[in-house]
Structures are given as C-alpha cells and as structure tokens.
Amino acid sequence: TEEKSLHFIEQIIEENLSNGFSSDKLRFRFPPEPNGYLHIGHAKSICLQFGLGLRYNAPVNLRFDDTNPAKEEQEYVDAIKEDLQWLGFHWDEERYASDYFQQLYDWAVLMIKKGVAYVDSQSSEAIAIQKGTPTQAGVDGPFRNRSIAENLALFEGMKNGDFPEGTHVLRAKIDMSSKNMLLRDPLMYRILHRHHHRTANDWKIYPMYDFAHGESDYIEQISHSICTLEFVMHKELYNWFLDQIYDSNKVRPHQYEFARLNLNYTVMSKRKLLQLVQDKIVTGWDDPRMPTISGLRRRGYTAHSIRKFCDIIGVAKRENVIDYSLLEFCLREDLNKNAPRVMAVLDPIKVVITNYPEDKEEFLDAENNPEDSTAGFRKLPFSRELYLEREDFLEQAPAKFFRLSLGNEVRLKNAYIIKAESISKDSQGNITEIQVSYDTDSLSGSGSEASKRKVAGTLHWVSIKHAIKAEVRLYDRLFTDEAPDTHKEKNFLDFINQNSLQTVVGYLEPSLNTAQLGDQFQFQRLGYFAIDKDSNSSELVFNKTVGLKDAWEE
Ligand code: ATP
Ligand code: MG
Ligand code: MG
Fold first, then answer.
1. Which CATH number fits domain 340-466: 3.20.20.80, 3.40.1000.10, 3.80.30.20, 2.40.240.10?
2. Has UniProt tagged this entry with the keyword ATP-binding (predicted)?
3. CATH code for residues 263-338
C-alpha cells in the first residue's frame, strides 16, 4: 500500500517532533458525551484520533465527557464502548470527566482565591444581557467584585446543596469587553440537583464544558487535543483555563480543530437523532435507517467499509458535505469481495416447466463468490415449479428487454435455458403462472453445446418446493431533502420520508436456513442483505443493506 500524504494534524505532529517534542509524550483522546449513540460523524473523529495513536504508537484515551447529568446515561456509555470496539479500535484508558469533579472543584477554589473567579447571583437572562453583542462590549455585573471570602463561602454553599438551581453560578473573571464573546466572564459551574449516572447525588454543582474539557486534557496529559471547527473560538478560553493551573514540568495540551463530517440526506446531531427515537419515527438508535454506528451495523455496514470511508474523506480544515453514495460505494466494494452470492425472489411469479418431470429434483452446483476463489460451491435445488421475479417477465417484450417474454429464451442462473410458452391469468388479468419449456441439454457448466448457447439474459430464481420464506425489509432514505436541518422556516422533521421502510415476504434458496446474525449475502441481481436481530427460530428477517450498482452480466 502506498503512503498517503500527511494530513495537516500529522504535519503538525511531525513538526513538533522535529522541534524536540518527545514522541513518548504523545497522547490523544476521544471524548464523547454519553448523551446518545455514536454516529458516522463520530467515526471520522475516532478514525482520526485512533489513527494517530496507531501511526505514532501513542496511547488514546476514551474519555466520557459526562458533565451534564440531565442528559447522560449508562446505556450510552455501554453503547459507545461497544461501537468503538466493533469499529476495531482499542483505547488505552477508560476515563470519565466525572472522575475529576473533586480536582476541578479544587482548581475552581484556587481560582477564586487568586481573584479570577466569582459567584454571580443574577438570573441567566440578566447575565446574557450584560454580555453584550459581538459589536458591543459587555458590562460588569453587580457581583463581579464580591470579596474572595464571600465567593468562597457561596461556592461552598453551592457545592453543599444549600441553594436551588439557577440561583448562583461560578464565573471566570476574564474580560467583559473581550472581542471573543466566550471570554466575557464565562460560566464555570452551575447548580444542578440531578442524579448523575456515576457520581449519583454526590454533587450539586457541575462544571461547564469549557472549564472541564481542557483541564481534563491536562489531567490526562493529552498532548494534542483534537476537536471540530466549532471550537476554534473556544481555544482562547481553553488556553486561559490552562494558564490558571499549568505547571511547566508537565505536558501542556494544545487544541487543534478539523472539519466535521457532514453527510447529505441525514441529520447528525445527537439531539435530533434522539428526537427521531423519542417520536418513534424510527424503532431505536439502532434502526437500520439511522446514521448511527449501531444502525449502520444493523443495516449491514462493515467496520472495514466505515474505516475506508473515513480514510477516503480525509482530514481537512474546511467543511463540506459528503455524498451518502460515497459511504455506499465503500460498503459495496467490501461486500462485493466478501459476501456470498445466493438467490432470493422478493416479488414472486410462478413458473412451471412443463417438460420437467413432476417428481424430479436436481441439486445443481452454484459458485458462492466469483470474487473469492476460496469460497467454493454449494448445491442448489431445482425442480419443475419455480419463482421468478415478477418484473423479469413481460408478455410482449419491448426492444432491449433482456428478460423473459412469450416465445423468448433466458438462462436461469446456474441452471437451464427456458423458453416462455404460455401464461395463465386471473379474472382481473393479472398473470398467475408462466408455462415454460426447458432445454434439457443446456445445464450451466456441463460443457455441452447447448450450455454455451448465448441467450439474451440470465435470471435468478428459486425452487418453490425448496424455498424458505423470510421477512425482508427494504429501506429508502429517511429524509426527502438533501439537507433536512438547514431550512429556515422548516424543521428537519418536516422532511421525513414516509416510505423509508417497506416490508416484503421473500423466497430464499434453502442454503440460507443456516444463516445467522452477522451473516451477509448478495441476493443476486437484487443487492446486499444482512440478517436482522429480529430473526427468530421460525423466521429469518433480512435488511437490505445496499443495492448493487449493476445487475450481473453474463
Ligand atoms: P453532536 O452534535 O452529534 O451531539 P457532539 O460533538 O456534541 O456531537 P460529542 O459526543 O461531544 O458529540 O463528540 C465526541 C467527539 O466526536 C468530539 O470530539 C466531536 O468533535 C466529534 N464529532 C462529533 N460529531 C462529529 C462530526 N460530524 N464529524 C467529526 N467529528 C465529530
Ligand atoms: Mg461535545
Ligand atoms: Mg452534543
């Protein structure tokens, strides 16, 4: 494999190393908030952070950024770990911002003592007004010059739960006229009388992201703290908080920002994904239509294809929107190599081979995967009555119709050439049965002259007597709009595709009887399909993962 050129973060690291930064001090982290499941956007960040870990043989921590008890749950922690493992990455240490609550509190007290933090007892509305606007400086509030002693006493009271929510906050005392609005005395702590999934009711105050994040990086001695571009303006604050506690014997973390992943025809904020779940627009976080890692996995996406996708899109400093079809391309490429081929009919029409004996059955050889010479062959039962796909037959063939029509021949994949002789219809004129004859000498692979005969098309089929029934779920996009959450007057929920799920009964070749959760197949000419977790011992359920680009040509 050829070496790709370095992306800008690798270039920064190379430069740091050549300027004397010791490679054994490199340390990275992936810092999800456990307030939802991971989505394909997170995969980009994961591949970046863990990719750096692998490239530089450096540890990557998994840090749960669990500073908001109102939204965080153990279920999400578990799901995040499962998804990371499934993606194929190994974290060094499992850390929690909540493990640092005492240390963060102690630093906050230190900052009060230094005179760079104070308790503000105004309403959040009053605080917001005093912040000013980007073009107008803020003004100092009435509590900005509280004495250190009073601040210490109030902050301790906040910690002890003496005050109701919303009555006081701790703010950093920076600069109410800073050009960067985030530096206009940002909040460090708020009062929340909430149960936390790890610290239970120990804490009545919780640190804000900007304070907790950088200090957590420092505690873990993260050398390169990589985040998405929305945090560019936060960097100044990140550095200000570090300045308050930094000890020059230690590694000082630096923040770097890259462009987040945007994909068309979907939404990627956890808040919006949660709404889809709560409003029951989807069946759960792992619904196969969701852009979550667990949804993609259930749909049939492979970890390899997601990593490959992240590799192709690369790491850059400018935001753009990636076409969903690129993700599907990466998947198809993987499945084409690895998914065994089978036959299934999803919209059946009955075919009777009138010159094939009624009590006869044959077991024909079928190649499992032409892309994989080690995949071998299986036996496929053939008999007098078959199902074909309804759309593969037309009474009168238009020009260039390479399927079956009256008086014309096609090849049945792995089997014989048949010719349509006559049809039966019901009282409404719907075709109920096609009567065909077969060329007894034309068996695929038999080497006979007739087996080499060129006919216009090759169709998939199943033997009715041997077929197994399964539920097959066919998916379309969840949203009808390319960018559902970018409209001014409309909400992303206004663009839900009402026909994103269609459930049909499929008839499958009997080799699928032994298929298990995790197995993936190409249903020939139809697409790739994966076994769904809703399967049980009496019925298999399949998800259509992705269509084929092209039907096979033979
Ligand atoms: P969301 O808006 O979906 O809730 P978030 O950034 O709040 O996302 P976190 O759990 O904080 O979610 O994200 C963990 C890491 O994943 C962060 O470093 C974040 O920058 C990164 N990340 C989140 N979404 C994307 C994305 N679309 N593309 C790249 N990285 C992302
Ligand atoms: Mg976040
Ligand atoms: Mg978020």
1. 2.40.240.10
2. yes
3. 1.10.1160.10
